[in-house]
Design brief:
With 206 residues, this protein is an alpha+beta fold. The chain is built from five helices and twelve strands. Its EC number is 1.5.3.1. Pfam families: SoxG.
Length: 206
């Protein structure tokens, strides 16, 4: 295989060509926002078979120690867990692709599992101005009395379909968008973050 052909088939970050690590936007003072590119993480949709939600709940508790989140809720601890996505449907997340490879076999007959790792782009938004930044475009109320750690929303951000879940009260959020919308989403996100000054960093490789 030629070097040129090998490069064509090499894995490529969803953010390649858009995100540039480093400090951007307002240069005075500390950055108000940190954008961490979450390449390499695992994502999979889990859809319960008809009448199998209780069995799925028992299995994820016994096998992984997870709670099957109720609507609008997520349970993510140490980068692993489940995020509610729709009635009878959840997004499984983990820090490495290998961590979720067994799910189709484990959930066989109880839930359908579809790998989404390469179909979505995920960015972590944190820093003192993280909430203010997202409030510019997120179509849900992010005020702490309405949206706290352990909450999730399937919504739109500047007319782009997205799912976000809040990880802690700092606050820190993970946002997932379809990979095909990465460029448009990044354009909005960085323009909205510019007034606060923002740092772009690559997440830890696994």
């Amino acid at each position: 295989m030629s070097e040129a052909t090998a490069n064509v088939w090499a894995p490529r970050s969803a953010w390649a060509g858009y995100a540039k690590p480093g400090r951007h936007g307002r240069t005075q003072g500390d950055a108000g926002v940190r954008l961490t590119l979450r390449d390499g993480i695992a994502l999979a949709t889990v859809i319960a078979a008809d009448g199998q939600t209780d069995a799925l709940r028992a299995l994820v508790s016994e096998r992984y120690g997870w709670t099957l989140p109720e609507p609008g809720k997520s349970q993510v601890s140490r980068e692993r867990g489940l995020v509610w996505s729709a009635p009878g449907q959840w997004l499984a997340v983990a820090e490495t692709r290998d961590a979720l490879r067994e799910l189709p076999d484990v959930f066989r007959g109880i839930a359908a599992v579809t790998d989404q790792s390469d179909g979505r782009a995920v960015v972590r938004v944190s820093g003192p101005n993280a909430r203010t930044l997202l409030e510019k475009g997120v179509a849900v109320d992010l005020h702490p009395r309405s949206f706290q750690a352990g909450r999730t929303a399937v919504t739109s951000i500047s007319h782009i379909g997205a799912q976000l879940w809040q990880l802690d009260d700092a606050p820190t959020y993970d946002l997932a968008v379809a990979r095909s919308f990465t460029g448009s989403f990044w354009s909005w996100l960085t323009e909205a973050a510019a007034e606060f000054g923002y740092e772009v960093e690559q997440g830890s490789a696994h």
